[in-house]
Each structure stands twice: as structure tokens, then as C-alpha cells.
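WARN no homologs supplied; continuing
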Amino acid sequence: MQIMREEKWYYVYILASQRNGTLYTGVTNDLVRRTWEHDQATVEGFTSEYNVKLLVYYETFGDITAAIAREKRVKRWHRAWKLELIEKANPTWKNLFDRETGHIAPLPGTLQQGVEESK
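OK structure emitted
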């Protein structure tokens, strides 16, 4: 008998206060919930202090170790490299989080699928 395991996804994401503004890089297993928390400033800290709420970039991983390694790498990058990453995938700096529907849109410059509202 083979046991079916539910696929688990992990996300490295970048938030911005505005186009070319303050940036924040994080990792989560629930992008919708975490983006909503940043958007609503439910947790005190850097993003609420600097009004960093716009989801402008994300990557999807099937392995938490790979996601954490990528987050650490991106956090060490020069700011210019992060801006270039965002500009390539989301040239208009569109907020990918729709607070009305709880949906995460795909990045405009990629073939990624969007992320549905948490259950």
C-alpha cells in the first residue's frame, strides 16, 4: 500500500514599501497568510515599522531546505541585484497580493501559477 502525501510548498518572497523603496525578504510555507500578516501589520517589526506591504516577487520551492538557502542567499545580495530580480519578473512593481480575494497573482514576467487563498 502506497501512502499519498500532500505536496507542501515553500516560498521565498520580497516585499516593498513602494517602487524602489524599502525591501524585505522572507520565507514561508503559506504565502497568502504571511502576506496578509504583513499587509495588516499584525506582527510588530521591520515591515510594520517601515510600511513594507507590497508583495512584488516570490519563488516557489518543494523543499524547505532549498527555500531557506535561497532566502539566505538573496538577503546577502546587493540591493541592485534584488532590484534587478524584481524588475525582470515584475517590471511595474505590481502588488501581487489581492487583499479582496486573498489570491496571489503570478509574476507578470514568468510562467508561474498564482497561489490560492489558504484553506
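The radius of gyration is 14 Å.
OK
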